[in-house]
Amino acid sequence: MVRMRALTFHEYGPPSVLRVDEVPLPAPAGGEVRIRVAAAPAQPVDAATRAGVFAGRGPDTTGRTLGWDVAGTVDAVGDGVTGFAVGDEVVGLSDWFAPGNGAQAEYVVLPAAAVARAPAGVSAVEASTLPLNAQTASQALDLLDLPAGATLAVTGAAGSVGGYAVELAIHRGLRVVAIAGAADEEWLRGRGATFVRRADAVGDAVRAVVPEGVDGFFDPAGVGAPALGAVRDGGRYVIAVGTRPPAGERGISTAVVMVHSDGAELARLAGLVESGALTLRVAGAYPLEDAATVHELLAKGGVRGRLVFVP
């Protein structure tokens, strides 16, 4: 049996439980492609999964390969696949909670519908940072469904999801209020956002620049209920998965964005990278064997850009 190296864990716990295993090489079924992995980012959701945060909410996730997003080269194509051929450079997203079919390995099999051509002119390490975080931001904006000219506040606005949300919102013609630490002010103003320094009283901080309240609020930082004070009556609020949305008040609608793979959307996002509308940020590249170190860095926070595994 042909085998490959993959990052996994066999019990919930600290970063030290992570290990690189030899596992069977997967074969693509109908409608699937196999990708030889060039780069696969480590995400906070990987660390939460390893720590057991989601234990009891679904099937046991121990023993599964970690990793949601990938950049690499198509290595094999299943029956019925059109649009991709062996040798194509691609990016893709695993809907990990369903199959536990992770990308932090030498190879990964994904539905062709979850894959897109990689953006031209960037490295695989850079391209790998696009799928999960940019699609989360894009799908949150779709949920908010704000018209051009509307105001949007974003927490964690210099983070990996928030940064994409700021750029995508500006590309859609929204006026963006970016909430982040002082060290990120220059980067955010350079994207065209109005900067607001992170504060406990986030509602008051945003109302100081938008007295009438913003039309929409995307909250990847998970501020929760205090953020509603920044939203006008009848406005909209979306939080990233993993945190229960606060109860609506003053007619404010609230929702959670549950990211899902969408190859067509990913292709559009790759095009925005090529046009310069989206910025890819990498904090560092590491072999799978350094997984414990990478998860420790995730736990410390403050990383700008993704930490990426290079199998």
Q: Specify the overall morphology.
A: globular
Averaged pLDDT:
95
Low-confidence stretches: none
Biggest sheet details: 7 strands, mixed
Strand-residue proportion: 25-35%
The H-level CATH homologous superfamily of the largest domain, spelled out, is: Medium-chain alcohol dehydrogenases, catalytic domain
- Cα(first) to Cα(last) distance is 20 Å
List SSEs in N-to-C order. Answer: EEEHEEEEHHEHEHEHEEEHEHE
Number of domains: 2
Question: Which CATH top level class of the largest domain fits?
Answer: Alpha Beta
Radius of gyration: 19 Å
**SS elements, strand count:** 15
Question: At CATH's second level, what is the architecture of the largest domain?
Answer: Alpha-Beta Complex
Organism: Virgisporangium aliadipatigenens
Pfam families: ADH_N, ADH_zinc_N_2
InterPro entries: ADH-like_N, ER, GroES-like_sf, Lipid_raft_assoc_Zn_ADH, NAD(P)-bd_dom_sf
Protein name: NADPH:quinone reductase
What this model shows, in words?
There is one protein chain. By secondary structure, the protein is of the alpha/beta class. The protein folds into two domains: 3-130 and 280-309, Quinone Oxidoreductase, Chain A, domain 1, CATH 3.90.180.10; 133-257, NAD(P)-binding Rossmann-like Domain (Rossmann fold, 3-Layer(aba) Sandwich), CATH 3.40.50. Helix content is 24%, strand content 29%. It contains eight helices and 15 strands. The protein has helices at residues 44-51, 124-127, 131-144, 160-171, 185-191, 202-207, 263-275, 291-300, and strands at 3-9, 18-24, 32-42, 69-77, 89-93, 107-111, 115-117, 151-154, 175-180, 194-197, 214-219, 231-240, 253-257, 282-286, 306-309. Strands 3, 4, 5, 6, 7, 14 and 15 form a seven-stranded mixed sheet that branches. The longest helix has 14 residues, at 131-144. The two termini are 20 Å apart.
